[in-house]
């Protein structure tokens, strides 16, 4: 299960990186949590701002058209450089048939360029749209964007994470992990938002959301 895989990965990171590095990463997460960002994000009952974003091939995808087909499940992730994001995307792919059987459309959104999104899609053989939100314009409308703490920049560099290449800018802005279920009329039915990059919504919970929406 995704939750177990995430915990296993965190424990692996704890064992592999220097204690000082892990402490810096923990402190940055705590600092972000203190901003109370989650309370400022798009909430259940509010109307989702519609968007148009390119998929991994550069084709524009319109949220209004997706909503017209049924409920829309949206996953915001940081990028394919993030191992936690990769676990989440793989778990969503494993449950894609269940999601579509319940009448929903799944999309994933990150600030990566379309080329980087294509790498994500091909690497994990994803059969759902992976959209490119360059500049985090859509994520901003959802209230999900933060600037990476300066203490993390040398750590990311040491890890080989080049955000300028991945995202096509030097803003060092990222979305916090989030999953939204949106009704056909644009109303947010359910929302999961966390400032802890190691925490993700279990696909089983998303399926429970969809089942509840049908009842």
Describe this structure in words.
The structure is a single chain. The chain has 10 helices and 9 strands. It is α/β, with parallel strands linked by helices and 215 residues long. The chain has a single domain (2-38, 46-214), classed as Glutaredoxin (3-Layer(aba) Sandwich), CATH 3.40.30.10. It has a 5-stranded mixed beta sheet. A two-stranded antiparallel ribbon has the order 1-2. It has a two-stranded antiparallel sheet with strand order 6-7. A hairpin with a 5-residue loop joins strand 1 and strand 2. The longest helix is centred in the N-terminal third of the chain and has 15 residues, at 2-16.
Number of helical elements:
10
Strand segment tally: 9
**Would you identify the regions where 5 or more consecutive residues have pLDDT less than 50?**
none
The largest sheet has its strands arranged as 5-4-3-8-9
Q: What is the CATH homology-level superfamily? A: Glutaredoxin
* Domain module count: 1
**CATH-level-2 architecture:** 3-Layer(aba) Sandwich
- The average pLDDT score comes to 93
CATH first level: which class?
Alpha Beta
Question: Based on helices, strands and strand pairing, what is the structural class?
Answer: alpha/beta
Q: What is the string of SSEs from the N terminus onward? A: HHEEHEHHEHEHEHHEEEH
User: What percent of the residues sit in helical stretches (DSSP H or I)?
Assistant: 40-55%
End-to-end separation in angstroms reads 26 Å
The proportion of strand residues reads 15-25%
The main sheet comes to:
5 strands, mixed
**C-alpha Rg (nearest Å):** 17 Å
């Amino acid at each position: 299960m995704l939750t177990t895989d995430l915990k296993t990965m965190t424990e692996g990171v704890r064992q592999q990186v220097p204690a000082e590095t892990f402490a810096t990463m923990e402190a940055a997460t705590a600092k972000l949590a203190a901003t109370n960002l989650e309370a400022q994000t798009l909430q259940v009952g509010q109307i989702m701002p519609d968007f148009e974003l390119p998929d991994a091939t550069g084709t524009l995808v319109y949220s209004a058209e997706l909503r017209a087909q049924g409920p829309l499940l949206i996953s915001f992730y940081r990028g394919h450089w993030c191992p936690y994001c990769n676990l989440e995307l793989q778990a969503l792919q494993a449950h894609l048939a269940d999601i579509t059987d319940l009448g929903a459309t799944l999309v994933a959104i990150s600030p990566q360029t379309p080329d980087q999104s294509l790498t994500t899609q091909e690497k994990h053989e994803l059969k759902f749209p992976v959209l490119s939100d360059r500049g985090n314009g859509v994520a901003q409308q959802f209230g999900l964007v933060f600037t990476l703490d300066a203490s993390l920049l040398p750590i990311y560099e040491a890890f080989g994470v080049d955000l300028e290449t991945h995202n096509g800018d030097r803003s060092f802005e990222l979305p916090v992990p989030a999953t939204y279920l949106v009704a056909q009329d644009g109303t947010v039915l359910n929302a999961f938002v966390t400032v802890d990059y190691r925490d993700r919504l279990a696909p089983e919970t998303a399926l429970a959301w969809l089942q509840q929406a049908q009842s």
